[in-house]
Amino acid sequence: MSKFYITTPLYYVNSSPHIGHAYTNIIGDCVARFKRLKNEEVFFLTGTDEHGEKIKLTADECNEDTLYFIDRVVNSFKELWNKLNISYDFFIRTTQDFHIRVVQEVIRYLFEQEDIYKSNYQGFYCIPCESLWTEAQLDNGLCPECKRKVEEIVEENYFFRLSKYQDWLKRYLKDNPNFIKPKIRYNEVLGFLENNDLDDLCVSRPKKRVSWGIDFPIDDNFVVYVWFDALINYISGIGFNQDKDKFNKWWPADIHLIGKDILRQHAIFWPIMLKALNLQPPAMIFAHGWWKVGEEKMSKSRGNIVNPEELIKTIGADGLRYFLLREIPLGMDGNFSWLAIKNRFNSDLANDLGNLVYRTLSMVEKYFECFISGNFEKIPDSFKECLDNLQKNYVPLMESLDFSSVLEEIWQLVNTMNKFIEDTKPWLLWKENKVEDLKWFLFSLLEGIRIMSIYIYPFMPQTSIEIMNQLGRDDKEITLKKAIWQKGSFKITKGKPLFSRIDAD
């Protein structure tokens, strides 16, 4: 079996998860499930970033012990991932002892090879972003990322020699044009490196100013900069300096999945950190877009956060997963609205997919007492193009993370089967006593639905399994090897409609 290692960013636990967090993990889960569908061995890593002054300040505002506050928020992430059927293999927390040890070992190693040094620092610090900026980088005196106030600081700190590796990173990007996707993000990073000199990265914070962090191993007066700490999770989570066989099996990562707002840390800081550690970079960094409300990015400070828990109550986990993966091509920004969700849910899920499955099983129940048997090899002519396209395009489109195109092709099959019912008029076949023709017609629909349910599994796992169960098939049949036309029989168990229309505003 080939291996596949995918990661999400670590989510900062200063507040509960929102729809942006859900989007990233749904994408990661879709990729992981697709790889398992291909019978690849997968390691899917997600987790939480639990250090930094922002977290301590938020805990203090809540009048809670810092670790108690963190544990409470971490549980809200885990509960959401469970509701969304996120099939992660390991949930890493940066407060775990093994991760702390690895971070400190990395610091010691880089210090010994003189890639970390102590120097004076003068600049501007943004607590919400945990970022340091020069005056030239500020946006009208504000943080260029979050547009909030910054604090001017002058202090001693430890620095990592980013500048030493700038030329290497430029060459690496030019030699590996698929390292960063989509292409617009690759161009953004390469353009920045070609037009700017990298400043060395400040990798410590004085304890007198930032008390909540990993102790800096070579100087007790400091803690480790939270971003330097968090990025190391991608190697600590698979056994770096702990389990050599496990680490060698999984590294390098195949995909680091991130939002475009943390591209600088992942596409500049992280590859250079790995180079300094004599480790290979990941195969790909994919930076997806934002979900916006109107023209603004969702953020707690703007008060426009969408709570995924509420959406799950209304449209279900699979309804939310489908909407987020279908509505916009991965990598682009999307506008989030209740009207868009309702239209997509009612049209695609309730009308097209749900109605197809329910009325097909109702006909099998009515005409053949829930059992269809026969050695039907003939595929309806109208199905052939859709099935051929899926057989040819499904894997390459999924490999390129073009989820919206994959779902469009799957729905062409769904719509073709619905049209097949309208064109054939099965009630007339029954009335005219054309039993074998009716049996072939229903077998064709059941077989088409079975194949379709395999293809939708990475996107809507609960729905895929439920369809298979209603078709009388085992969940173990959900594998790409089975996504071909087969002879056989169906003993169906009709359930409730998969999706009910949303009529409320």
Concise overview:
This protein has 505 residues and is α/β, with parallel strands linked by helices. It contains 17 helices and 17 strands. It has a domain of 154 residues: Isoleucyl-tRNA Synthetase, Domain 1, CATH 1.10.730.10.
Structure description:
With 505 residues, this protein is of the alpha/beta class. It has a domain at 338-491: Isoleucyl-tRNA Synthetase, Domain 1 (Orthogonal Bundle). Helices cover 49% and strands 16% of the residues. It is built from 17 helices and 17 strands. It has helices at residues 19-37, 53-61, 66-83, 97-112, 166-175, 183-195, 226-231, 233-236, 244-250, 263-276, 308-327, 338-368, 381-399, 403-424, 426-431, 435-455, 461-470; strands at 3-12, 41-49, 90-93, 116-126, 131-133, 151-160, 180-181, 201-202, 204-206, 222-224, 255-259, 285-288, 291-293, 296-297, 334-335, 371-374, 488-491. The strands form five sheets. The protein has a six-stranded parallel beta sheet, with helices on both faces. The chain has a four-stranded antiparallel beta sheet with strand order 5-4-6-8. α5 packs antiparallel against α6 and α12 packs antiparallel against α16. It starts with a strand and ends in a 14-residue tail after the last strand. The model has no long low-confidence stretch (mean pLDDT 94).
